[in-house]
Structures are given as structure tokens and as C-alpha cells.
Amino acid sequence: MAELIIMILVFGLSIIIGYFLISRVPSLLHTPLMSMTNAISAIIIIGAILVFSQRTTIFVDILGAVAIIAATFNVVGGFKITDRMLKMFKGDGRS
């Protein structure tokens, strides 16, 4: 039970710290930042899959499933937005 409380505390603190760090990033750096968060989300997915490979409680399984779903949305959405932003910089073919 103490491990769960520590994990929830770390999760809450990472949300707060992440919010304050990202809110101070200049707009020119948002695309590289999104690429980095996509990589972090991919690592989260791998970690959650590794947790599923061990015998755990149903509560931990549910948290792992939520982590995989949320990280997958982040990865897919991040790549979609990055692709859209890159298309904005492409010309229409006329030079």
C-alpha cells in the first residue's frame, strides 16, 4: 500500500512540474518538445506492457491499461499534429 501512495505522489508531482515546465517553453520550441513527449509516451507504453507481463492485482492492471491508452492517444495525437504542422511549411509546389 505504501508503494501505491508513493507512485501516486510521484505521478501528481510530475503533473505539476510538467505543467510549469511546459508553460514556460517558447512557442518556437513546441514542435521539438512534442517530439520528445512522443518518445516519453512510447517509453511509458513499453513500461506498462512490462508491468502487464508480471502477476499483479486487478487495480494495477486497470492503472496499466489506462496508462497504455493515455500514452497511445498522446503518441498518435502528437504525430498527427506534428505532421499537420510540417505540412504547413511545405510549399504548394510552385517555385
Short description:
The protein has 95 residues and is mostly helical. The chain has helices at 2-23, 30-52, 58-89.
Structure explained in plain terms:
- The chain is mainly alpha-helical and 95 residues long.
- It has a domain at 31-88.
- The chain is built from three helices and no strands.
- The protein has helices spanning 2-23, 30-52, 58-89.
- It is flat and about 55 Å long.
- The termini are far apart.
- 3% of the residues are buried.
- The model has no long low-confidence stretch (mean pLDDT 77).
Considering the chains and any ligands shown, give keywords for the structure.
95 residues; mainly alpha; 3 helices; 81% helix; flat
Distance between the termini: 64 Å
In DSSP terms, counting alpha (H) and pi (I) runs of 4 or more, how many helices?
A: 3
Outline: flat
Helix-strand pattern: HHH
SSE blueprint and pairings:
Elements: H1 2-23, H2 30-52, H3 58-89
Helix pairs in contact: 2-3
